[in-house]
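Appendix C: a fully annotated inverse folding record. The material below is reproduced so that readers can follow the format used throughout the book. The structure is listed first as tokens, followed by the designed sequence.
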């Protein structure tokens, strides 16, 4: 087995594709090839295409994809362009791909879509639950706060199908089967109820639907949950008692909860546990969805979503619309726009004809990527504004070179703890690259709107005048306090670090709306495993790389080893494959080839891949576009696959 002819195939040296910086505009010539153009030609071409689509098919044939890595100010101007210049609410971003279920679930329970606690609070809590979150790799800054909490005496429990590097720091690891988060949460809730550990004072005062919730979880005994989840009954019991009896507890989750066809229901199931125990609305106790990109929270806060105006104000509320209409001197459609998911479906039907894509790469980040590329290709007009010629940009009719939001732009961003922080330009952009806001305003001018913003602060001040939750955040105060958390309606007072203290008020008026229990049912993954596709593929991130690798692939890392199909030792032995050997990985949607890696943190029947190297191994050819009906997020975490050994080239 060790000879050259019979040993494992040598890996072909796959390296991440590197992307050269865009330094001048590009337009597609009559020969179908992108060529260099002047800014005036590129903007004229881009604007003419948008105008023609709007005049021929109406405003809803246009959509804007805004950017979760760009500043709040850019996202504000992008959604304003969509609503004022193009006359539609079709604006969204990659928030839809990851944490839209968190926003939907939190909003349904508390009326606000932000995490309830600050990072500092995890350092001073008594219990940390990391559910579906390999925070050590995916959210390393937050994980440093968690480690401080552990050093200060907090106990941590990890709930994850894989025994990740985060789980290595935990007191216990609950290795559940993919897609069984609701049964596990219901069993924890039932155990808390039967053990007499419910915080009835909080439940009676601040919640609704408790009796219905009790009936809902009653069938989920520890034994029943063990059969479905694969987690030992005793481990479920221990976590239930630890969470319910802790004085303060932080329940944290990431994409392991949200990237499912029922992601919003998963979020509601976790929120139920905090309502049951009163672990919300107090310092050190709360629920925390950890955002993976620097401004995915801020993009939604700024209204770059189809159902909310800036500052979380609902499109359907006449008073909110009228306030913006007066400020913008425009009429806003009194209906929700299309989500990212609905946009791609509308590309297929021809309802959506033009897209302005800023800083996103949906050709490689969407589930079932072959389908996503086909839909993008069906557009009549695609304009991409970015810093690199991504696969999406390479499909565009016009490409506009922008500045890098983290190093060449002034503005603000908002992180997972709702903290708005200043960003300052440190570098001069290369070549003819221009700021995002400058480009959007120039596009608006070509379409008949004379927008003049002196600088990013002028944009921010316009936002503050329209969003009460941001009104108190002047640039001066943001610099003075190194960031402020929303809601911050006052220019003198400092905001609270945590949300929903009102739920503890005895006065019903001050307490406000009660938080309802979410009555959600278990719904297994859509893509079932069977004899033809026996392995459950789940996806995630690695510490050394970022999203589709466009930004991180150009930088060397001693940790980076490219893309692999990761298997447990038992499965690797059963398939007769060795580390480094290339295999074909197939789902019901497509196939890729990838080398094998063996990970002892996986269990039999479970495989793992990332989306960081789509130019070498396009993992999203395997994933399924089974979407959450509430939030529109796809089920990236649960695909059924098989692996096949490749026939050696010398045979």
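Designed amino acids, in order:
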């Amino acid at each position: 087995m060790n000879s050259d002819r019979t040993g494992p195939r040598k890996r072909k040296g796959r390296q991440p594709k590197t992307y050269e910086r865009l330094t001048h505009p590009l337009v597609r010539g009559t020969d179908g090839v992108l060529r260099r153009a002047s800014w005036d030609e590129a903007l004229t071409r881009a604007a003419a295409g948008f105008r023609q689509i709007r005049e021929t098919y109406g405003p809803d044939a246009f959509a804007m994809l805004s950017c979760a890595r760009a500043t709040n100010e850019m996202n504000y101007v992008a959604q304003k362009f969509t609503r004022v210049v193009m006359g539609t609410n079709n604006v969204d971003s990659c928030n839809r791909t990851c944490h839209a279920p968190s926003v939907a679930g939190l909003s349904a329970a508390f009326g606000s879509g932000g995490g309830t606690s600050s990072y500092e609070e995890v350092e001073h809590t008594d219990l940390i639950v990391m559910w579906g979150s390999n925070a050590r790799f995916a959210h390393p800054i937050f994980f440093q706060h968690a480690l401080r909490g552990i050093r200060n005496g907090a106990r941590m429990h990890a709930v994850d199908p894989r025994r990740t590097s985060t789980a290595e720091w935990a007191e216990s690891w609950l290795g559940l089967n993919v897609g069984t988060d609701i049964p596990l949460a219901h069993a924890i809730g039932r155990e808390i109820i039967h053990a007499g550990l419910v915080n009835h004072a909080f439940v009676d005062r601040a919640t609704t639907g408790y009796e219905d919730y009790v009936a809902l979880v009653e069938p989920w005994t520890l034994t029943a949950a063990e059969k479905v989840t694969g987690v030992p009954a005793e481990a479920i019991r221990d976590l239930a008692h630890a969470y319910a009896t802790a004085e303060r507890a932080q329940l944290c989750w990431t994409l392991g909860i949200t990237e499912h066809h029922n992601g919003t229901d998963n979020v509601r199931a976790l929120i139920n546990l905090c309502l049951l125990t009163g672990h919300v609305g107090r310092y050190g106790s709360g629920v925390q969805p950890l955002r993976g990109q620097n401004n995915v929270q801020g993009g939604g806060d700024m209204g770059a979503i189809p159902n909310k105006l800036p500052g979380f104000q609902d499109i359907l509320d006449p008073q909110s619309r009228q306030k913006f209409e007066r400020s913008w001197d425009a009429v806003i459609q009194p209906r929700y726009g299309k989500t990212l998911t609905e946009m791609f479906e509308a590309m297929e039907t021809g309802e959506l004809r033009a897209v302005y894509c800023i800083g996103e790469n949906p050709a490689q980040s969407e589930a079932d990527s072959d389908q996503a590329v086909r839909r993008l290709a069906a557009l009549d007009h695609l304009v991409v504004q970015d810093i690199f010629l991504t696969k999406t940009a390479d499909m565009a009719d016009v490409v506009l070179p922008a500045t890098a939001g983290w190093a060449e732009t002034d503005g603000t961003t908002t992180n997972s703890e709702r903290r708005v922080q200043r960003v300052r330009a440190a570098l001069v952009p290369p070549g003819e690259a221009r700021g995002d806001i400058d480009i959007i305003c120039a596009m608006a001018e070509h379409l008949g709107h004379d927008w003049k913003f002196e600088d990013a602060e002028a944009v921010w001040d316009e936002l503050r005048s329209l969003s009460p939750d941001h009104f108190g955040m002047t640039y001066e105060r943001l610099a003075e306090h190194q960031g402020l958390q929303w809601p911050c309606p006052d220019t003198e007072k400092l905001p609270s670090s945590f949300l929903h203290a009102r739920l503890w008020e005895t006065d019903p008026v001050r307490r406000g709306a009660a938080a309802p229990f979410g009555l959600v049912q278990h719904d297994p993954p859509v893509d079932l495993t069977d004899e033809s596709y026996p392995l459950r593929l789940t996806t995630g991130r690695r510490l050394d790389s970022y999203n589709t690798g466009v930004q991180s692939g150009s930088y060397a890392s001693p940790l980076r080893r490219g893309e692999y199909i990761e298997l447990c030792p038992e499965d690797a032995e059963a398939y007769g494959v060795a580390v480094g050997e290339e295999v074909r990985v197939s789902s019901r949607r497509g196939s890729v080839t990838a080398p094998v890696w063996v990970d002892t943190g996986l269990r039999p029947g479970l495989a793992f891949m990332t989306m960081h190297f789509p130019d070498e191994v396009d993992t999203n050819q395997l994933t399924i576009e089974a979407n959450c009906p509430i939030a529109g997020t796809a089920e990236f975490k649960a695909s059924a696959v098989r692996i096949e050994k490749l026939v050696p080239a010398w045979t």
